Amino acid sequence: MSKCLAATAAIAVLATASAASAKELKYAHFQSADLSSPKHAAALAFESCVEGKTAGSIDVQIYPAGQLAGDNEVMEGLELGTIQMAVVHDGPISATYKPFSALALPYLFDDQAMAWAVMDGEFGKEMAEDMLAKTGIRMFGVADNGVRNFTNNVRRVAEPKDMQGLKLRVMSAPVWVTLVESLGASATPVPWPELPGALQQGVVDGQENGVTNIVNASLYQNQKYVTLDGHVFSWHAYLMSDAFYEGLTDGEKTAVNQCVEIAKVIHRGMTAAQDANASAILSEKGMEVVPVSPEQKAMFREAAQPAVREFVVGEVGAEWPDKLDAAVAAYRDSFK
Prior knowledge:
Blueprint lengths: L2 H19 L1 E6 L9 H16 L4 E6 L7 H10 L4 E5 H7 L15 H9 L1 H14 L1 E16 L14 E4 L3 H9 L3 E4 L5 H6 L5 E4 L1 H6 L8 E17 H5 L3 H27 L1 H7 L3 E3 L3 H23 L2 H15 L3
Parallel strand pairs: 1-2, 1-3, 5-6, 8-9
Antiparallel strand pairs: 3-8, 4-7, 4-8
Helix pairs in contact: 2-11, 3-4, 5-14, 7-13
Subcellular location: Cell envelope
Protein name: C4-dicarboxylate ABC transporter substrate-binding protein
Family: Belongs to the bacterial solute-binding protein 7 family.
């Protein structure tokens, strides 16, 4: 064998050995596998960043659109360590780690700047530490799941009285049932992958989600009306099995930490841009957009917030809702 061929063969053997020894990182998310999906665009950026910074010692394998497992199963996988990383929405997180349901308190944040400041500050850090201690799941931070709005295929909804008799899909955590029922509608938990079918078949009249998810899952095809009430700033949390994380080298941990930050910026920016242009985007999709005045939003807040707070306090105590209120108040005070 020539020296050139021998060198080529040696390089191939080293590359194969390196690939075989790479740490497999299964990364699950629930949006479609295209670059218009904030979750997927962020996931691809994370993959490129981590594999580059670790010279391939971590092999990131992305499973979009719920391909790896359902949302509750993904949370179980993170606890057990069978799934290394996932970006998961509020409902399944609240079902596994109940204090997260405090973030379902409706009509709380004024805008994205406030919501990000609270979640990036001491409140978010303390919650991440508590989640890690209680579940073995490491929360690096959160990105936007969109400002949640109500949609339905029956009538215009501008005030709580218009919700009477509607059947609405909610995420799989009891706090969301409480929110919808406090406004006079009936609530049916439906897993995210099953939602388009449930709307098409008339199992439910409507649902509540941000613009990104309404467009990404083509929910507008079976929903005529969207009410821009912005009842909850919803989140996608960047989660990792702590058993996997602690098995990384210091350099690999640094790479993961840095690359999550990059993914979050991409994810937040894409989702926030869609929320800011909700009326135009959804109108173009054929939906009738129903604006909500400050006076009407106050009606929604008065109907929903006490019931949801009572439920959350009954589930997790007053500690986390009180801490969230304090963080919001501190943010507002910082601008006085």
